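Per your request, structure below.
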């Protein structure tokens, strides 16, 4: 696999490694939202949300649209939410496996 592809994937995971950016992407998977709506739903300042949106935009994960004084954001592609869902599924699988192991250990203790 070409090194530039690996670098691009690593960069993507770097951007997605921030919980706030993940929350923003998940919110935007519901549809286009303006900055005010995002910051109100996340309970963060507008400037904080704007900084994270700028990073997402730089990495071509979101697009913006201006309408008067409002700035609206949407996902550039829905494929990014598929990546996040797969990661969540992997994490949930690990949690269920850990729970199963914990139950076995508890049974042995009895």
């Amino acid at each position: 696999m070409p090194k530039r592809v690996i670098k691009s994937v690593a960069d993507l995971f770097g951007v997605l490694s921030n919980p706030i950016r993940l929350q923003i992407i998940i919110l935007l998977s519901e549809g286009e939202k303006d900055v005010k709506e995002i910051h109100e739903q996340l309970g963060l300042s507008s400037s904080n949300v704007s900084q994270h949106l700028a990073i997402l935009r730089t990495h071509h994960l979101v697009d913006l649209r201006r309408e008067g004084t409002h700035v609206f954001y949407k996902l550039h592609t829905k494929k990014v939410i598929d990546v996040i869902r797969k990661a969540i599924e992997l994490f949930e699988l690990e949690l269920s496996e850990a729970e199963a192991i914990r139950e076995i250990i508890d049974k042995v203790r009895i």
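The chain has a mean pLDDT of 89.

Regards,
D.
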